[in-house]
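request received
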Amino acid sequence: MSGSSPTAIAEGLFQGKARSRKIAAALPIEEKLRRLVAMQKRANEIRAAAGRPLMRVWQLD
Amino acid sequence: MEKTLAILNELEAAGLVESYAIGGAMAAFFYAEAVVTEDLDIFVLIKTSGSLISLSPIYDFLKQRDAIEEREHLWLAGTLVQLIPAFDALTEEAVREAVEKTVGQTKTRVMRVEHLIAIALQTGRAKDHARIALLLETADVNQTCLQDILARHDLQIRWEKTKFRP
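response:
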């Protein structure tokens, strides 16, 4: 198995992330709203663990 | 969120606001990836006969539709909404020139991406700068339009200082 430099590996990973973000940006708004609510809930798990005030979570239709 | 938007459309149809547009983080959802936010910023153009305005008739209308006031926000059909009167020439223009979008089956109006960038630049918090970077990276920004908005609203120097690049 041939090796790669850390820089090349990191560059490949960053390019992959950039592609993923483009795909995420192109999702339908309805899917983005579902992701938002999931993020609000996840953020609250961290906030609760850190003793910070909770974020208010939306209820989708 | 469709029910929330339907009620806002009713608000506009009832003539209590001249028009409204989604701004802030939620507006950016229409152009870039989803990021966590707590509230839906709704900018409203209110008909006035003088320089003073009141949000009370709007709040009363929304409370009749089961909105619940919570400090500076309203819970409206499951969504935490902040109503913001268009407060200067830039936000007024952003509401007037907002574009129609659809969420599910419900039509709504969303600020153009170039106005979102200009307003974020004007507001200037760290999270606003992060939003600008995100929009420049992923959204289809019309640079000519953006530069025109920045010039008309005296934001070009600030733009140059922050060194944002598409």
